[in-house]
């Protein structure tokens, strides 16, 4: 991979920059406990991964609605019935999910060399809260709310290309999810880097499995900064 040819780095957010597994696990466990249930992290993530993409694929809904309906399905798998208030609270918690410890410094370093973009399966207001936690001035942000669909559909990538005006040959997409990001970006002809964070729920964690193959793999965002900035 010729690192010098890229002008724009686009990122998935949740799972790549933000520790969504911890957010999911803690949110589901709170509801489990309220219903006298308990669940292992791996079981929570599998149930979430099995449900979320199905809900997203039915028709476009806000991500708050997606998370609420996903929690209902997770509850069915784990033996509890989430109330509407519990579903709403779980959905609202997205803005409180923490960035990974390696994220912010790596983005600052990368932002000194590249333009930075976000392509995320999220609502605008939820990402606004996450953006405060990241403290990064992204050049472009494309959300599911803006394009009316969820990755692995390709509208995020098409909208990013239209807004930025930067050719796909000069764009590198970076993500944790092979299913939601690496597969569709690769199919469109983008170079990709897989941020292979070790999941608490096994090989794929809270995302479905995929056979997509990235152009490069790093363990975290610090590894991405080393890959793209050393010797340039």
Give a verbal description of the structure:
This protein has 232 residues and is an alpha/beta fold. The chain folds into two domains: 3-19 and 99-229, Rossmann fold, CATH 3.40.50; 20-96, DNA polymerase, domain 1. 48% of the residues lie in helices and 12% in strands. It has ten helices and six strands. It has helices at 20-34, 41-58, 63-78, 84-92, 103-111, 124-134, 144-147, 155-164, 178-187, 221-229; strands at residues 8-11, 115-120, 140-143, 171-175, 191-195, 216-218. It has a six-stranded parallel β-sheet with strand order 3-2-1-4-5-6, sandwiched between helices. Helix 9 (178-187) links the parallel strand 4 and strand 5. Helix 1 packs across helix 2 (41-58), helix 2 (41-58) packs across helix 3 and helix 5 runs parallel beside helix 10. The chain is globular, with a radius of gyration of 17 Å. The chain starts with 7 loop residues before the first strand and ends with a helix. The model has no long low-confidence stretch (mean pLDDT 94).
Please give a quick description of this structure.
With 232 residues, this protein is of the alpha/beta class. The chain contains ten helices and six strands; from the N terminus they run βαααααβαβααβαββα. A six-stranded parallel sheet has the order 3-2-1-4-5-6, sandwiched between helices.
- Mean pLDDT metric: 94
Low-pLDDT stretches are none
Task: Report the β-strand fraction as a percent range.
Answer: 5-15%
Shape: globular
CATH architecture of the largest domain: 3-Layer(aba) Sandwich
Helix amount? 40-55%
Class by SSE composition: alpha/beta
Task: Walk across the major sheet and give the strand order.
Answer: 3-2-1-4-5-6
| Largest sheet data | 6 strands, parallel
What fold name stands as the CATH topology of the largest domain? Rossmann fold
CATH class designation of the largest domain: Alpha Beta
Number of helices: 10
CATH superfamily of the largest domain, called what? HAD superfamily/HAD-like
Distance between the termini: 13 Å
- The number of distinct structural domains comes to 2
Give the beta-strand count. Answer: 6
Q: Radius of gyration, Cα only, in angstroms?
A: 17 Å
Write the element-wise H/E pattern from the N-terminal end onward. EHHHHHEHEHHEHEEH
